[in-house]
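Reminder to self: tokens first, then the designed residues, so the page reads top to bottom the way the pipeline ran.
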């Protein structure tokens, strides 16, 4: 045997020994962790029962002692359950009865036995992608001596329905009177079975975003859009002062905004939607040059120069592509509202499109994409509410929020023009 082979053969047992030691440490660590987890759980449940017993003793007096002044008596124990680790675990609850035969209420039991934490856990698991079938697998295992329930598919589904229905109620009754909104964004998401959810997001004077409400309808019609806006007004959305409203260009939304908010609404149509609509009306070979011209117009700081570029483009397309020209001319003035208000930089780019609310809608689509069959419009509304509220948790301030003062000044100027009877170009 060569010298190097001898050295290698000598090293092998050492490496094997180290591997064995590592495996032993890993197994020991796992055992300690599992033992600690079981010990904490069992000790915690024992502490719970001790606290309940102590509260019963305060109401019924010490055990095996007769007290003439006591107003309640011990009533043994009853099989009950507490929320623990995303499910219900079985416990023997101490009971007490008043001299009139009524059940004694133990304060700690009222707090610990609430269903809310379980409902919140079910919603949280659904939002991160855990299905009702796999919910039980996502929970930490319990010791064998602790019986549990409430982790099955049907139980989790019922809790998710209750919790999301509660979220819908909270969202649709939010008080908006305390929000000094400067921007309103509206858009819709379409589902199967001809259902649509129209969503509203607001931006206050400091650039903070707020989910304002949802409305379900058969189509993105004027009736659906008007119902959403009327709901916002009932809950405190101001209609007597100017507000910038960013839309995707849908006629139903436009008519509804004009009907509810009137001249106080300064409408900005989404430039990205307009760009797609125009390009889709053109043959492939023509799209590159037209897209370049549209981008040049939208990047131009001077709104008059931008309007001239767009009008020139519409005239150039009129002869060979009248459909594209008509699409471009439709609502052309509303494409440049933020430029006419004097906004620039990041704030102007952000408020020129509906990307802000479309990102929100995208998260709703991603969440609801796991649903295979929609049973009703209320089910769609529940999932949509869960999605937008989940997205709201990650809201940051509006890009360019440092320039919100320019927008506020422009809105005040528009209000002054309306009060003085001067329409002003900003209201166009």
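Designed residues (428 positions):
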């Amino acid at each position: 045997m060569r010298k190097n082979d001898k050295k290698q053969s000598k090293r092998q047992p050492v490496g094997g020994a180290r591997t064995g030691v590592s495996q032993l440490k890993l197994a020991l660590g796992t055992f300690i962790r599992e033992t600690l987890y079981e010990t904490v759980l069992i000790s915690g449940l024992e502490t719970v029962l001790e606290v309940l017993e102590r509260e019963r003793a305060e109401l019924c007096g010490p055990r095996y002692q007769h007290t003439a002044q006591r107003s309640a008596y011990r009533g043994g124990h009853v099989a009950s359950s507490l929320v623990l680790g995303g499910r219900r675990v079985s416990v023997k609850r101490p009971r007490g009865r008043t001299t009139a035969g009524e059940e004694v209420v133990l304060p700690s039991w009222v707090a610990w036995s609430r269903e809310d934490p379980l409902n919140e856990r079910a919603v949280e698991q659904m939002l991160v992608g855990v299905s009702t079938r796999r919910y039980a697998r996502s929970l930490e295992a319990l010791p064998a001596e602790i019986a549990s329930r409430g982790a099955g598919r049907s139980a989790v589904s019922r809790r998710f329905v209750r919790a999301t229905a509660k979220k819908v109620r909270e969202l649709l009754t939010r008080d908006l009177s305390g929000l000094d909104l400067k921007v309103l964004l509206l858009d819709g998401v379409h589902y199967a079975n001809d259902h649509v959810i129209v969503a509203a997001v607001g931006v206050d004077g400091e650039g903070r975003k707020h989910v304002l409400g949802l409305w379900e309808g058969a189509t993105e019609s004027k009736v659906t859009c008007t119902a959403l806006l009327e709901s916002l007004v009932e809950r405190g959305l101001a209609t007597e002062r100017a507000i910038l409203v960013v839309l995707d260009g849908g006629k139903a939304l436009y008519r509804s905004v004009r009907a509810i908010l009137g001249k106080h609404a300064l409408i900005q149509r989404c430039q990205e939607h307009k760009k797609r609509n125009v390009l889709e009306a053109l043959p492939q070979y023509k799209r590159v040059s037209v897209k370049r011209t549209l981008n040049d117009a939208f990047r131009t700081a001077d709104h008059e120069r931008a309007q001239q570029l767009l009008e020139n483009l519409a005239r150039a397309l009129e002869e060979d592509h009248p459909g594209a020209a008509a699409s471009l001319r439709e609502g052309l003035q509303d494409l440049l509202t933020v430029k006419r208000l004097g906004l620039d930089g990041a704030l102007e780019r952000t408020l020129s499109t509906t990307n802000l609310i479309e990102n929100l809608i995208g998260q709703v689509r991603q969440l609801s994409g796991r649903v295979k069959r929609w049973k009703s419009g209320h089910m769609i509304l529940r999932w949509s509410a869960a999605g937008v509220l989940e997205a709201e948790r990650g809201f940051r301030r509006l890009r360019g929020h440092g320039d919100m003062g320019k927008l506020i000044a422009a809105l005040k100027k528009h209000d002054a023009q309306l009060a003085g009877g001067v329409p002003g170009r900003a209201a166009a």
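The mean pLDDT is 81.
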